[in-house]
Amino acid sequence: MAATAALPVLGPGLTEEPLPKSGSHLMEDDPTPPRYKSEPADVSRLAEPLTFPYSGCIASNRFMHAAMTEQLCTYDPDDHEKNGIPTENLERVYKKWGEGGCGLILTGSIMLYGDHLESIGDPVVSPHHPYHGPRFEGFKAVAQAGKANGSLMLAQVNHPGRLCVFQESPVSSSDVPVIKNGTGDGIYQYKPPHPASIEDIHRIIGAFAHVAEYLDKAGWDGIELHGAHGFLIAQFLSPRINKRTDEWGGSLENRMRFVLEIGKEVRRRTRPDFILGVKINSTEFQDTGFVTQEAREICKHLEANSFDFVEISGGSYEKILMTHQRESTKRREAFFLEFADQIVPGLTKTKVYVTGGLRTVGGMVRALDTVDGVGLGRPLCEEWSLCKEMLEGTVDGAIITRIDPGDFWLALMAGNRNIRMVGLGQPPLPCWKEEIIEGLKAQYKEWASNKSTVKELGRYRTIDKAYADAKRV
Ligand SMILES: Cc1cc2nc3c(=O)[nH]c(=O)nc-3n(C[C@H](O)[C@H](O)[C@H](O)COP(=O)(O)O)c2cc1C
Known about the structure:
Radius of gyration: 21 Å
Structural class: alpha/beta
CATH class: Alpha Beta
Number of domains: 1
Helix content: 25-40%
Bound molecules: flavin mononucleotide
Number of strands: 12
Strand content: 5-15%
CATH topology: TIM Barrel
Largest sheet: 8 strands, parallel, barrel
CATH superfamily: Aldolase class I
Number of helices: 17
Shape: globular
């Protein structure tokens, strides 16, 4: 790709000389958005297909649309059985992202139980849900929408464990409470958890596998287990949270049993060409001081258990790490590449994606020296066809928003808003404009304090048509 020489190389901040306007989604009267400046790089490397070793499926390029919670499913505060049915807004969101050129699209987290949500409006597939009816039709429609232009469509599947505000005593690996109640001005207040019984563990493993089988039948290409960001799978992996003394805790072998058993059960219940991946944290390992050994060991076992890919991320609600922690990571753009350096040499088949911090074609192409693919989150909430445009060479850097790169919660709020707007058929907010961000900041405290309450339901949820008559405000 040709370098746009006129622009200075900038870190987080605003360019003085914006690139020519591009991006078909932008409204005509919008000024040109400022962009991160890329070093010269061979974009054709990002266009190379990627074959997954166990399913045999092929992603058309190296871009992954990272999981981003949409909160666009039905929610009923009085009847959790009605929760989590996809709406037409959700279908619209994936139709739009499906036009954006990512080889692989991950949805936001799908939950296993209607009363164990992470947020209001999460999608839900439970073990008793049948392979027909409005819910099943809704999931079919969302898959079709995302796949219409050749992307692989995968669902992220998650159990929040102790990170669930809807439970008086949420389940976890053991009874270690969340130490910091939601950064971001106390967005979430979590109750102390209880340790899962052996029966709970087997029931939850079965529930994960049911989602996979259900989505397989509904036309999805695969799933990603959410083993990062401090949710239930991570609560088993983490020696700080998992204090069990039975075969599900203690040694690394025991702590990783939960994720590996889920993987085995998913493989047993799905077609051979169903993609199975997992998102894991680098930080779980950093906390223990056994970064290299534990991470490598886990990934070797994931490979031996036919996981097609591992997505590397970091941070949790106790410690948000969606920003650069060291000068060395800033130079490499991606937050977690140093961790990838440690685990990739131990793998011979399983593919590795790194997500977090990537903003320029140059940074992404360099990441491919270490990993197989790159995940993008926040930039795709801003610019829905960014990957396509990068592949076509129209742009070589993401839009620089006015959101401080260290402020993940404001970015989450902005992302949620944009997903909601696209769900309604409107363009996303131009977050490179100061007045837009000032507006969001003014509403932030209210948004944060209403999060996952009935107030949020009334105040912020706007969905136009559900697949079922579930009650909603
Ligand atoms: C609006 C929004 C929602 C998110 N929801 C999820 C989620 O459901 N599951 C998940 O694993 N990560 C979620 N993330 C984190 C992203 O997948 C990604 O790891 C993170 O944003 C770092 O990548 P980036 O620097 O490219 O944004 C979310 C991020 C945003 C901005």
